Amino acid sequence: MPESQLTPDLPAGTGQKIPWRCAVCGFIFTGEKPPKGCPVCHSPSSEFIPDTAGEHLTYDGEPFDVLLINGSTHRAGNTGYMADLAEEELRGLGVTYRRYNLSEFRIDPCWCCYAVRAQSCTYPCRNAKDDMPAFHRMLAASKAVIVASPINWNGMSVRLKSFLDRTTCMENLYHLNKPGLTGGKVAGILINGHEDGAIKTAMDIWLNFQQMGYILAPFGIGFRTHGSEYNSSTDREFFRNDRLIVRQAKGVTGNVIALMKEGLEERLKGRLVPVTE
């Protein structure tokens, strides 16, 4: 079954007050429903999620087709909309998937164990105290990954950068002459932003997955920007009325699934020569 991580609001009038956390800045609000907006970072109500401090993401071990990652700091923003479109296409194609918004989870910076000695960068990752070990297992279990990222200063979001840094332990399996877990899997990349930097951002993301043996789907990069001549406050309305962003997101998603169904991961097993940094 599809698993979306967009948390629904609790119904009004239940009398149950719970802590709500702004997924952008961490502000905590207690009430039946989240506030109309965050008083600290001014994010809208849709960025609030029930606070589950102390709980870690777990993976149930069930295999599935696609891991869909929204790498934006704003889970319900424009990049989230691209992820929504990809999710809609995945449902329509009848494939199994799991969607995660990184802003909802704790991913610590990479400890850079490899800088001490190569043998110290191991899988499973030595840092088992955050949510990344569950993502590692899902990367290994899924057949494909689709990543959506905003353009932040001509690059990916810092949350996504931390996520990708933490995949080093999977890449390093090849350097330690151990069986890899991701060779031959398929990748697709979706980029959304206010202005320039889409291709650079996409290629920065792709380099990480290429180093783990992923195959980029044909026409596997889609991007849409609005333009620096416009005020960023108009981006939301523009993208939600734009036909091209729909074509880009759904097209890339369909291309990923088309290649995934070719079964290259299984067909290439034992035939790939790892060439990584």
Summarize this structure as a short list of keywords or feature phrases.
alpha/beta; Rossmann fold; disordered N terminus; 8 helices; 17% strand; five-stranded parallel beta sheet; three-stranded antiparallel beta sheet; 277 residues; Rubrerythrin, domain 2
What is the straight-line distance between the termini? 37 Å
CATH topology (fold) name of the largest domain = Rossmann fold
The assigned structural class equals: alpha/beta
The helix tally amounts to 8
- Unreliable stretches (pLDDT < 50, length at least 5) are 1-13
Tally of individual domains: 2
What form results from the Cα inertia axes?
globular
What do these coordinates show?
The chain folds into two domains: 18-50, Rubrerythrin, domain 2 (Single Sheet); 66-267, 3-Layer(aba) Sandwich (Rossmann fold), CATH 3.40.50. It has eight helices and eight strands; from the N terminus they run ββββαβαβααβαβααα. With 277 residues, the chain is α/β, with parallel strands linked by helices. Helix 1 crosses helix 7 (243-260). The model is unreliable at 1-13 (pLDDT under 50). The strands form two sheets. A five-stranded parallel β-sheet has the order 5-4-6-7-8, with helices on both faces. A three-stranded antiparallel β-sheet has the order 2-1-3, with no helix packed on it.
